Each structure stands twice: as structure tokens, then as C-alpha cells.
Amino acid sequence: MPVNKKTSFSILYVFLAIFAVILVHDFIVATQKLEEIPYSEFKSLLAAGKVAEVTLTQQRVTGMLKPQDISKEQKLFTTVRIEDLDLIKDLSAGNSKFSGTIESTFLRDILSWVLPAVVFVGIWFFVMKRFGQGQSGFMTVGQSKAKIYAEKDTKVTFADVEGVDEAKEELREVIEFLKTPEKFTRLGGKIPKGILLVGPPGTGKTLLARAVAGEAGVTFFSISGSEFVEMFVGVGAARVRDLFEQAKGKAPCIIFIDELDALGKARGMGPMAHEEREQTLNQLLVEMDGFDPRIGVILMAATNRPEILDPALLRAGRFDRQVLVDRPDKIGRLAILRVHAKQVTLGPDADLEVIAGMTPGFSGADLANIINEATLLAVRRDKEQVGLPELQEAVERVVAGLEKKNRVLNKMEKERVAHHEVGHALVALSFPGADPIQKISIIPRGIAALGYTLQLPTEDRFLMTKTELENKVAVLLGGRIAEELIFGEASTGAQNDLVKATDIAKSMVKSYGMSEKLGTITLDRERQPLMMQIQAPQEKGDYSEETAREIDCEVRRIVDEQYERVKRLLTGRKAALLEGAKRLLEQEVISGSDLKAIMDKY
Ligand code: ADP
Ligand code: ZN
Question: Catalytic residue among 230, 259, 421, 470, which?
Fold first, then answer.
């Protein structure tokens, strides 16, 4: 049901037609071979009675001579009209026909309304382009830019995607299902419907989706979310219907929507064009709810900003399965470099391990770019093979390009971040009830975090005890205190931790009545929502200056107590801290159990 192309009506064609008319008009006038003659000659021709007729305007006299010979064409002439009071008299005397016309031509008439219209339309397009999501250029008005790409065989396999082993593992099931849907339905297995690949740009989300199609041997339909959102309400929604219609006819297959966030932004976000986006999004939700995955259609989508997605998209039965596609660690980077190096001839000195070691924080796309740049350099240098110098220079080039986007830490910073993160983790591991540590990483991600310690709760929690809150404060302080212990001073890297620690302590005092000194009262006017979402305390409530001072003292006391406790703890575990950080520097990512093993050794 291809709707858009047929209903399309292009304003451009209207303009083209108008300009064509103008051109033709000019052309006809030009071909009539008007001869410019001096006014004096005109007067003598007139006196000689040779002028058949003239048309007078304010500036010109244009006319026709009497034919000298019947067979000959009448000669056309034009001359500048000068102040001549006798003209009319002479014309009458010469027996010439004459008429006047106001000098305002068809051409000028047209321009007088076409020009403002063009300007207006131009401004309109500019505004739409700037503020709306309607990114069609002038040339594509009304013509859907959204192209559905259908690939019968993507020719990509899992061997082409490296450094994302966990994601690959999770997607194996999808491949199984696409290969033998009967088996799944017979056993009553839960069939995935929508899978959201979440991760930074260039980490291979698209590649991974294509690999799933390639491995399963099914058709791959892809479209980009940003292309869905058109200038005209209804076009995107029709496109969505079209996409699902086509896909259902080709099942088993995969539908992949890149940049889902462009289309699935939470409703009511962003100016203009949102009505169109809403309609498109609603249509997508309708289609997702309406299809039965048992027909063999799997929907996949990619985003690097899952937090802005409309929650409706993530509900059960929609994109309820999320797969993290993160930046690769050192081993992953080496594997990715090897994949891309297959297409080029490497010299014996080209040690990819060295390159993998130089590139923490790089995405798969960045690494592919390194190989490409190095190859270009080798060609420019007339070399037969790509050597280590080219690779190293390519890294520098890519780094220079990335510097603004991405943080690449220097050696000193990396050491600091490693000790900081291990500090957090060691404190967390020391408390029996604390949430387990999943992994500790010094691969920079995003703008804010240089490294991170991933601590995930094992169960949903609705209540927290005082001790647990104190432990949270302690874990947050662990990073800074580790830095102080090892480097003798703190750095700016702990600011965010301190903000969070202080907020927790404040909530304990003000909201949860956990301070003995202030008693079991809540000093916030509004209740905090849920225990788990500890918010920054609100504006000062109804209490005296004196109470405010007491609150400050109590907050300080809680933080100070935890500070002393963590300092004792980490001083006692300094050996584990050093060894853990060393391991982290080597591997960039270590698991919580790795660190636990190190800790237990001492
Ligand atoms: P995303 O969709 O996450 O932005 P892409 O899949 O478009 O990233 O990646 C762009 C290119 O970078 C890929 O075509 C591939 O050449 C390379 N690339 C990215 N990630 C990987 C990876 N994990 N393994 C191998 N190559 C990768
Ligand atoms: Zn920290």
C-alpha cells in the first residue's frame, strides 16, 4: 500500500510551470526582431508616411512599418520616446494607427506576486527545517524520504561482530527462533517480540541486527527513526503501516528501526512536528500490539538515548527486551581490529595488540576507522603492507577527531580513576548486605563518568534500613578516600559522589527521622516519593534557623562518621586496593568476583 508517492503533490512543479511561462513570454518577444532606431529616424519615417501603426508607452514608441512589398514581412521597430508635443499631431497626419498602453507587463505582474511567495515559502521551509523534524529539503516536499531497505541476505555473520559477546549471547535465542519458529511454538517458549539494542554510537548495533538476520538467513528490513518523522501529519504513520505490511509478507524476517529515539521520544517533548511524531509513534505501538511474533517477524531497534524514549515503547509485549551494546574492552578491541584487518595486508611489525592497548574508550566504528586510515597512510607512502607506524599514526588521527566527543584519559588520570573505582568496590564488598558489584570499569562512557562501578540490586527494594543508607554513603565516599590514601590528595573526580552522599545523609536527617538528636520527626513539608529514589531534599521546610543549623550538624556528623569508618577500612585493605587497581589498569574491566578474590587473599 504505497501511499506517499502517489498522494504527493509538489509545490516545486507549480513554480517550475510559472517560470516556464515567463521564459516563453520573453522568448516570443525576443524573436520578433525588434529594430531599435533613433527617434529622428522614426520622425522622418512618420513624415514619409511609412509607419503603419504604433503603440505608445510612457518610455517607448513601438510600431510597425507599412509593407513596401506585399510579400515582405512587416518591419518592427522601437525607439525611445522623448518629449515631443507634435507626436500625436504627426501620427494623425501620417495616417498611422496609434494606441497607448500602460507600461506594466505580464512579466512584472507575475513577479510582483511570485517573488513574495517564493520568499515566504523559503522562510517557511527554513523554519520547518530548524524547528520541526520535517527535514525534507525543498526538492523532496511531499515525497517520503523514509526508505525501507530490504536485504534478502545481509551476508553478515556473528563472526563479523566482536567485543560484544554478552549481546551476541542474548541474541542467539532470536536466531534459533527465526530459524525454527515451529520448535518454539510447539514447546510454548516465550517468543521475543521487540528487542532494543542500547549503546553509544558506533558500537555495532546496526551491524549486530544485520548479523542476526544473516545468521538466521532471513530478510532484513531497515529504516531510520529520524526518516519517519515527516513534515506532513499522517505520512509517517502510513509509512509504519506500509513497513509492517511488507514485512509480514516476507516472514520470517527482521524489522530494524535505527535511531528509535527520533521517533519514540516521550510524547510532549520538543517543539513542532510533534503531532506527526505522536501519530507515527502511536501507529508503531498499534502495529507492535497487533502482530503475533509467531508469524516469524522480530522487531529490533537501536538507540543511544534510552532514557528519553516514551515509556509506552518499553512496556511488556513491545520493546520489553533490552540488550546492552557497550564499548569494547581490550580483548574485544583486539578482536574487532582483527576483523577489519582481514581486508588489508599487515606487515610483520603490525602488532594489533599494541593498538588495542592504546585505544580504551574507542567504539567498533572508531577501530574500523583506524584500520582504514592506516591503509590510506600506507598507500600514500607507497608501502606494500600496513605497518605499526601507520597504525599508530592512524590512532593519533582518530583520537584528534574524537577528542571533543570522547574522553581519552592520560596515564596519570587513568591510575587515579582505577584506584577511585576500586575504592568504591572494596567498600561495597566489605558490607555483607550490600548490593553485589557486577563490574568495575575504567572505560570512559558518556561525558560524566570516567570510570564506573556497576552495583546492581538483586531484588526490588521498597524499604531501606538506617544501616543500609549509611553503607550507601560509605560506598560513595570510598572512591575519594582511596584517592587520598594512594595519591595523598583528592581530585575533582569525586564531586558527584559527594553530592549523592550528602543528599542521602540529608534525607536521613530530614525525611526519615534517623537522627537521634533531631528525633523521629520529618522536617520536609512534602513526603519523599519512594525510598529508592532518594531525591535532593526540597526547599527549606517549616523550621527555625536553629533547627537548620542542627540539621547541618547532623548531616555533617553522618558523613564524617562514615568517612572515618571507610578510611579505617581501606587503610586495612590497602594491599588489595593496590592490586585491584593494577589489575583494573591492565584489563580495564574486572568483575566483582575477581576483586573479591583479590580481597580475600589478604
Ligand atoms: P551503531 O549502529 O551502533 O551506531 P554500526 O553498527 O553502524 O554502529 O557500526 C558502524 C561500523 O563500525 C560497522 O559497520 C563496522 O564496520 C564497525 N563496527 C562497529 N562495531 C563493531 C563491532 N563490534 N565489531 C566489528 N565492527 C564493528
Ligand atoms: Zn566515584
Answer: 421
